[in-house]
Amino acid sequence: MARPRMSSAMLDVLGLLLEAWDQQTEVHGWQIMRSVRRSGPAVYAVLDQLEDAGWITGSWQHPPAGAEGRPRRRYYRLTPSGAEAARRQAVARPRVPSPRPRPAPGFGLHRRARPAS
Question: Where are the residues of the annotated region Disordered (predicted)?
């Protein structure tokens, strides 16, 4: 099993996947993007690396009845060896919070309207 390159995006995604592992659940890509506040391309690049390394597996959602036209979701979970490797990585390089919180995706800076003179 090859070790993926550790980046801040990788550590964010691994942290979320470890939480899901501990709760014995799976997460889908959109959940991951929203939770770690990363773009789709960044998250899916990390997921591809983790899947290639054998640290995670993905499975497609069975479409629920009445959900025609809605795309299926792909759910991800750590493999047992991936969970062990991710835990070792988390202990070796604990995540340091950034000095400034990032705004949630889709939210920009808003200027106050100036009062009319």
Answer: 81-117
Measure the N-to-C terminal CA separation of the chain; round to a whole number of Å: 67
The pair of structure tokens assigned to 27 is: 């997460």
CA distance 48 to 82: 14
Q: What angle do CA 14, 16, 22 make, to 5 degrees?
A: 100
Q: How far apart are CA 44 and CA 32, in angstroms?
A: 9
pTM more than 0.90: no
**Domain 8-64+72-92: top CATH class:** mainly alpha
3-state secondary structure 8-54: HHHHHHHHHHHHHHHCCCCEEHHHHHHHHCCCHHHHHHHHHHHHHHC
C-alpha closest to that of 3 among 84, 94, 76: 84
d(C-alpha 97, C-alpha 27), whole Å: 23
Q: How many Å separate Cα 116 from the centre of its chain?
A: 45
